[in-house]
Amino acid sequence: MNSKQTKNTPITILEDVFGTTKDGVTVKRFKMNNENGMEVSIITYGGIITSLKVPNKNNVSEDVVLGYDLLSDYEKSTPYFGALIGRYGNRIAKGNFSIDGKEYTLQANDGPNHLHGGVKGFDKVVWSAEVLNDVGALKLSYLSKDMEEGYPGNLHTEVIYTLTNDNVLEVFYQATTDKKTIVNLTQHSYFNLSGDFSKPILDHIVSINANKFIPVDANLIPTGKLKDVANTPFDFREPKKIGQEINIEHEQLKRGLGYDHCWVLNDQNQAMRFTASAHEPNSGRLLEVFSSEPGIQLYTGNFLDGTLPNKQGGTYAYRTGFCLETQHYPDSPNQKEFPSTILKPGEVYSSKTSFKFSIK
Ligand code: BGC
Q1: Same domain for 149 and 264
Q2: Which of 32, 62, 123, 224 lies at a CB distance of 3.0 to 4.6 Å from 46, suitable for a disulfide?
Q3: What domain range is 329 assigned to?
């Protein structure tokens, strides 16, 4: 523990109004500040992290996540910038799955597949908020009604965002249901650690703690086999630039239009494991991600095309942000070999991910 932590200055959390939805619902914003220059802004719409300011090597705090300044921009069009994703992060083939022989059909909102919880997933609902001042945290809650977006069970979800003085943002998820259902929650922040949203993220040096990844078919649905990363562009066991091999001839990179894959994390016997890191040498910023989840999706902003406005007066161009989405594997409800995403009444879904920032 460093001396700054032992001082234990409380995290300050200030609330204001971010905007009003098209349906007239007030959306609040909470700004959490620590004593080491970090400031996290979270809104009740989608539980979205709208801004995340982190010091660089010269101790200048800059925003390192993509997003918008206006609620109307989030309502108009967003590739899930900064949002909480549920009930099921990632894809479910054709939106179909069955539980105990009963078939469910979710809406296809990504070509033939269901993606990130559907048309109005957890990223587009307004959450209830409670400030937990003693622990420097914000608790968001949402009750997703039985059959909302086609998912069975009344699912009560809580997400606690905690900021600490050692520059960790922790996301803790819990959910309970009254009917057998599926759950796979994640956080969809797009990072650009340079602090300059006009710069592609290809020079970020990334490592992923995984010996295997999950190959996908042409619709980005897992083929069901796990593949060794060795001798493929998916080997991030030694840190390398995102851009180092992203454009080489490789069937999986073609299908993802770059990286848009889930890795099978090592050390799954540990409650919390190191999953991945990203270092941006110019700013010195280092992000390390720890999680209780078995998988992590690296998505390199391959669908960003310069049409969405950024917070710095420009637009979000191709590959100007990357996501590290901790999660269970895509399409798990249809893949018998994958860890289960079933939640039963009486059980508590719980999942934790920490984003740790430092300078290297
Ligand atoms: C998916 C991408 C998708 C993006 C949404 C990511 O989590 O893996 O395929 O395009 O979310 O913009």
Answers
A1: no
A2: 123
A3: 205-334
Nearest to 131, CA basis, from 266, 204, 209, 30: 30
Are 9 and 77 in the same domain? Answer: yes
240-295 tens-digit pLDDT = 999 999 999 999 999 999 999 999 999 999 999 999 999 999 999 999 999 999 99
pLDDT number for residue 9: 75
- For the cut 90, the answer to whether the pLDDT of residue 60 exceeds it is yes
CB 320 within 8 A of CB 304: yes
Ligand 1 pocket test target in 219, 255, 303 with most atoms within 8 Å of CB: 303
Tens-place pLDDT, residues 78-103: 999 999 999 999 999 999 999 999 99
Q: Give the separation between CA 103 and CA 133, rounded to whole angstroms.
A: 44
Closest residue by Cα to atom 4, ligand 1, is 79
List the residue whose alpha carbon is closest to atom 12 of ligand 1.
79
DSSP string, 203-242: T-EEEE-EEEEE-B-TTS-B-S--EE-TTSTT--SS-EEG
Using a 6 Å cutoff on CB, does residue 88 contact ligand 1?
no
Q: Are residues 162 and 219 in the same domain?
A: no
Task: Identify the band that residue 8 occupies on the pLDDT scale cut at 50, 70 and 90.
Answer: low
pLDDT at 163 over 80: yes
Cα of 299 from ligand 1 centre, angstroms: 7
State pTM to two decimals. 0.97
- CB of 297 sitting under 6 A from ligand 1: yes
CB of 95 closer than 6 angstroms to any ligand 1 atom: no
- The answer to whether residue 6 scores a pLDDT higher than 80 is no
Within this chain, do residues 183 and 105 fall inside the same structural domain, yes or no? Answer: yes
Q: How far apart are CA 263 and CA 207, in angstroms?
A: 11
| 204 labelled catalytic | no
CB of 113 closer than 6 A to ligand 1?
Answer: no
* Element holding 254 (H helix, E strand): helix 251-256
| Same structural domain, 153 and 298 | no
Domain closes at, from 189, 224, 240? 189
The whole-number pLDDT of residue 328 equals 98
Q: Is the CB of 299 under 6 A from ligand 1?
A: yes
Residue after which a domain boundary falls, among 156, 189, 222: 189
Q: How far is the CA of 193 from the centre of ligand 1 (A)?
A: 19
Indicate which CATH number applies to the domain containing 316. Answer: 2.70.98.10
330 lines ligand 1 (CB under 6 A): no
